[in-house]
């Protein structure tokens, strides 16, 4: 019997437009999607996938490259692809009732800095989940999606909270800082987050009440484990 339901919200973006007008191909990052899905399903939860318009984002090919994503990446790619295939058409974000879910997970890839950061449907969903004290998890570029949650006056609902996210240093090391319209960690700090930085590309997780964040792909498994422990 299922313990409950968890919602994974994906970006719908397949391109990240750069400041020079060039288009950088993006998609979901396999480990950030697969590791939480695996942990939650093993713990007995049903996991649903949703995105803006129900659009299925492609795989970020970097996350399938062992030189970039580590030797384990093939396992994560296979798990993510199978999970998405078995789930079928993604749910549409604007049709989601967050009351149906016990927790919300926001994986990365660069997509969230393209669409989710300003998605009003996601903003309403996260505001309700936060108000109800439900675990909200975001990893790597996933914390960009938290920026969508604002009050009636346009103030960011997660200002003042402790969190981590893909750092400016990691963005530089990855080769995507130059030409980025904005850098995630800097933007979070500018808008009032207490951004806590760990060592580049090493697992680093922060828990602040019901908010669970991970800095990079290596932090994905711990993110899910921490959320599952909180749900117990």
Automatic annotation (TrEMBL):
UniProt KW keywords: Glutamine amidotransferase, Lyase, Stress response
The UniProt record lists the keyword ATP-binding: no
A family per Pfam: DJ-1_PfpI
Domain DJ-1/PfpI: 32-229
Keyword Lyase: yes
SUPFAM superfamilies per record: Class I glutamine amidotransferase-like (SSF52317)
Gene3D superfamilies assigned to the protein according to its UniProt record, in alphabetical order: 3.40.50.880
Alphabetical list of PANTHER family matching this protein: GLUTATHIONE-INDEPENDENT GLYOXALASE HSP31-RELATED, PROTEIN/NUCLEIC ACID DEGLYCASE DJ-1-RELATED
Family: Belongs to the peptidase C56 family. HSP31-like subfamily.
This protein's name: Type 1 glutamine amidotransferase domain-containing protein
Species of the source: Streptomyces smyrnaeus
């Amino acid at each position: 019997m299922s313990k409950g339901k968890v919602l994974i919200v994906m970006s719908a973006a397949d391109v990240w437009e750069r400041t020079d007008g060039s288009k950088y191909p993006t998609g979901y990052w396999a480990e950030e999607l697969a590791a939480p899905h695996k942990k939650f399903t093993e713990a007995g939860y049903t996991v649903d996938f949703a995105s803006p318009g129900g659009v299925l984002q492609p795989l970020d090919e970097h996350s399938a490259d062992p030189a970039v994503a580590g030797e384990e990446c093939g396992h994560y790619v296979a798990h993510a692809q199978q999970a998405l295939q078995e789930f079928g058409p993604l749910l549409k974000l604007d049709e989601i009732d967050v009351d149906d879910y016990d927790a919300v997970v926001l994986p990365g890839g660069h997509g969230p800095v393209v669409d989710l950061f300003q998605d009003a449907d996601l903003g309403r969903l996260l505001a309700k989940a936060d108000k109800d004290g439900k675990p909200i998890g975001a990893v790597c570029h996933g914390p960009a999606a938290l920026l969508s949650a604002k009050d009636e006056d346009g103030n960011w609902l997660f200002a003042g909270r402790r969190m981590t996210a893909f750092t400016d240093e990691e963005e530089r090391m990855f080769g995507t800082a130059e030409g980025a319209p904005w850098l995630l960690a800097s933007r979070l700090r500018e808008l009032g987050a207490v951004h806590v930085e760990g060592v580049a590309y090493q697992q680093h997780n922060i828990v602040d009440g019901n908010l669970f964040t991970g800095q990079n792909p290596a932090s994905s498994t711990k993110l899910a484990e921490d959320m599952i422990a909180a749900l117990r």
